[in-house]
């Protein structure tokens, strides 16, 4: 070190100047941090960038006046995946934003909305690269779920959903690839629409996976949802007056924590005074998929010994992820290899999996997609509405992670993603202090039909949500008979494979004696045969409450939980059964199977 430099460092005035400068920098940084925190609280952390795009003035042409004023005075926000001229599209990751230039043009859908009288107020936070369904972002923070601040808002269009739910805007635009609009709509208690694949323009939208990507939108009001659809959907999609067929996917409601009876009751009551609705039908949609999508068999999990709703949806999810991974790699591999960006924990695994994907089975993947499209066109035609739960579970707590939660959520969202059908998520009040949601699915191209159905039913659905009701108990034909005799009748029906009759007999026995663990455990066995896994689990809970050493109840609850993709809980049940009965072969095989599947 030179002498002159030592003298400068020993000068007290120099140290004073350095100290003042550092203090100023600290104060400035703290001021900026507090401003950001204040902004985050004001907008629930939904917006990543604020700006204002005013409505585009239109020529005064009589034939277009109605359309151009369709969204007059409405405000909206857009996911940070849409190009806006003069702004860099961030894709939810600062490394992407740093290495890309400002967009030269605005996305077609944004221009259409501005041309229809709406005002854009900014871009919203999203999961990095549109991967993930939690809504969490390592770099930009997690938007706050207005209805449940301690839980995730859902993603990947998290900021758009929160902006609408919090009342910051009238509607918001997002994208839906694997559930990215439907899932946050469900968790935030608002309407969310995923259009038919390829119906709404994606020009000016960064691609995740083109075979699955769609531009979707959120709203609190069905009329706003409808008006946005009229602007974005092609004008040649003519909606004809027709009757409507409501079809409940009974097997899928077994995956939901919201009782299926509640949803069925509300929909029944909502349409009973509306014209043009046929009596609701019920079906097992997974059996239909298994019978009509033969190419799906090639994706069967080798560890799955039983074909059921969950295994079929797992196969469908596998196809969805394989398609997404291969196409994402094709779109962005070069950038990832050159930049090597830092990634958030939840996104890193998905990106790495995508980068390691191959094209080995691409023809089969596209064949499954085609078969699903054809199968659902044949099922729904131009008047069908399939009713399913939007999500199976309540939202996770912030910073929590559960692979089972993701598996179950993707299982339901894979149906519309692979078939290309249009789907709308509709709020259904609350269950266990969380937002409940039901979804309507219509055939590819029936978007206006579906939006009109929501507009027609929404008010009555919300009226019925608040109605209290009591479900009728099963008819008791032998009230004078002992509960044990009813149990024996149930056992006989079970051996004869008359599962519904067995459930009825066991239910009558329970009505006479509601403290007998065996009755609940036996009814759980019948429910398992019927594919009613949620009911089976609840019965096992009651059986164990009355008899903590009921080995069969632990085995049956473990089976139900495994079929509901809750593997950790299932493993604990089988382990507990082994503690009570160390030589139990069923429990031992199940434990080995679950351990192997987790490795």
- The residue ranges in which pLDDT falls below 50 over 5 or more consecutive positions are 1-9, 13-18, 20-39, 64-68, 468-481
Count of DSSP-assigned helices: 23
Write down the CATH class of the largest domain: Alpha Beta
Report the CATH architecture of the largest domain: Alpha-Beta Complex
Specify the structural class: alpha/beta
| Tally of structural domains | 2
Write out the CATH superfamily name of the largest domain. Amidase signature (AS) domain
- Proportion of residues in extended strands: 5-15%
| Molecular shape | globular
List the strand order in the largest sheet.
Answer: 1-3-2-4-6-5-10-11-9-7-8
Count the beta strands.
11
What about the largest sheet?
A: 11 strands, mixed
Mean pLDDT reading: 88
Gyration radius, rounded: 27 Å
* CATH topology-level name of the largest domain: Amidase signature (AS) enzymes
Distance between the termini: 58 Å
In helices, the fraction of residues equals 40-55%
Oligomer: single chain
Pfam family, one: Amidase
TPR repeats: 551-584
Organism: Phaseolus vulgaris
Domain Amidase: 61-221
Break the fold down into its secondary structure elements and pairings:
Layout: H1 3-9, H2 12-42, E1 47-53, H3 65-68, E2 75-79, H4 94-98, H5 108-115, E3 119-124, H6 158-165, E4 171-176, H7 182-188, E5 191-194, E6 214-219, H8 222-232, E7 245-249, H9 250-253, H10 260-271, E8 281-283, H11 285-292, H12 309-339, H13 345-355, H14 362-380, E9 384-389, H15 403-419, E10 422-431, E11 434-442, H16 447-465, H17 483-495, H18 499-512, H19 517-530, H20 533-546, H21 551-563, H22 567-580, H23 585-598
Parallel strand pairs: 2-3, 2-4, 7-8, 7-9
Antiparallel strand pairs: 1-3, 4-6, 5-6, 5-10, 9-11, 10-11
Domain Amidase: 61-221
Keywords: TPR repeat
Protein name: Amidase domain-containing protein
């Amino acid at each position: 070190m030179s002498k002159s430099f030592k003298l400068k460092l020993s000068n007290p005035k120099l140290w004073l100047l350095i100290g003042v400068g550092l203090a100023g920098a600290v104060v400035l940084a703290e001021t900026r941090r507090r401003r950001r925190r204040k902004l985050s609280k004001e907008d629930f952390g939904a917006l990543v960038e604020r700006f204002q795009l005013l409505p585009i003035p239109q020529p005064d042409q009589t034939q277009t006046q109605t359309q151009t004023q369709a969204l007059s005075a409405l405000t909206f926000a857009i996911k940070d995946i849409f190009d806006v001229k003069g702004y860099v599209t961030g894709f939810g990751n600062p490394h992407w934003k740093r290495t890309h230039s400002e967009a030269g043009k605005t996305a077609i859908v944004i221009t259409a909305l501005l041309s229809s009288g709406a005002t854009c107020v900014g871009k919203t936070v999203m999961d990095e690269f549109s991967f993930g369904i939690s809504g969490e972002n390592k770099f930009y923070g997690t938007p706050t779920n207005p209805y449940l601040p301690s839980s995730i808002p859902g993603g990947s269009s998290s900021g758009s959903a929160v902006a609408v739910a919090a009342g910051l805007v009238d509607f918001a635009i997002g994208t839906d690839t694997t559930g990215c609009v439907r899932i946050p709509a469900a968790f935030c208690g608002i309407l969310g629409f995923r259009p038919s694949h390829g119906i709404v323009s994606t020009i000016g939208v960064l691609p995740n996976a083109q075979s699955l990507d769609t531009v979707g939108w959120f709203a609190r009001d069905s009329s706003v949802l409808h008006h946005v659809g009229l602007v974005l959907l092609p004008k040649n999609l003519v909606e004809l007056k027709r009757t409507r067929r409501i079809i409940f996917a009974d097997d899928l409601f077994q995956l939901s924590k919201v009782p299926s009876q509640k949803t069925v009751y509300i929909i029944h009551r909502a349409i009973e005074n509306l014209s043009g609705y046929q009596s609701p039908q019920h079906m097992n949609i997974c059996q239909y998929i298994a019978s009509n999508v033969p190419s799906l068999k090639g994706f069967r999990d080798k560890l799955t010994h039983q074909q059921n709703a969950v295994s079929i949806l797992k196969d469908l999810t596998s196809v969805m992820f394989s398609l997404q991974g291969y196409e994402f790699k094709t779109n962005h591999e070069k950038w990832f290899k050159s930049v090597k960006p830092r990634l958030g924990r939840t996104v890193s695994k998905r990106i790495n999996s995508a980068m390691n994907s191959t094209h080995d089975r691409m023809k089969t993947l596209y064949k499954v997609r085609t078969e699903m499209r054809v199968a659902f066109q044949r099922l729904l035609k131009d008047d069908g509405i399939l009713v399913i739960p939007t999500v199976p579970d309540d939202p996770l707590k912030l910073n929590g992670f559960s692979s089972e939660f993701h598996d179950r959520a993707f299982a339901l969202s894979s149906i519309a993603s692979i078939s290309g059908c249009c789907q709308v998520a509709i709020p259904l009040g609350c269950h266990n202090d969380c937002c409940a949601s039901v979804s309507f699915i219509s055939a590819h191209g029936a978007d206006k039909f579906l939006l009109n159905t929501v507009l027609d039913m929404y008010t009555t659905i919300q009226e019925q949500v608040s109605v209290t009701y009591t479900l009728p108990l099963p008819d008791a034909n032998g009230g004078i008979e002992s509960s044990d005799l009813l149990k024996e009748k149930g056992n006989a029906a079970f051996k004869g494979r008359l599962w519904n009759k067995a459930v009825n007999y066991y239910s009558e026995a329970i009505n006479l004696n509601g403290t007998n663990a065996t009755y609940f455990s036996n009814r759980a066995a019948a429910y398992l045969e019927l594919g009613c896994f949620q009911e089976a689990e609840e019965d096992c809970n009651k059986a164990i409450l009355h008899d903590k050493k009921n080995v069969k109840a632990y085995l049956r609850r473990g089976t139900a939980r495994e079929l509901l993709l809750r593997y950790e809980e299932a493993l604990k049940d089988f382990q507990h059964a082994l503690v009570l009965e160390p030589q139990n072969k069923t429990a031992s095989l199940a434990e080995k199977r679950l351990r192997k599947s987790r490795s």
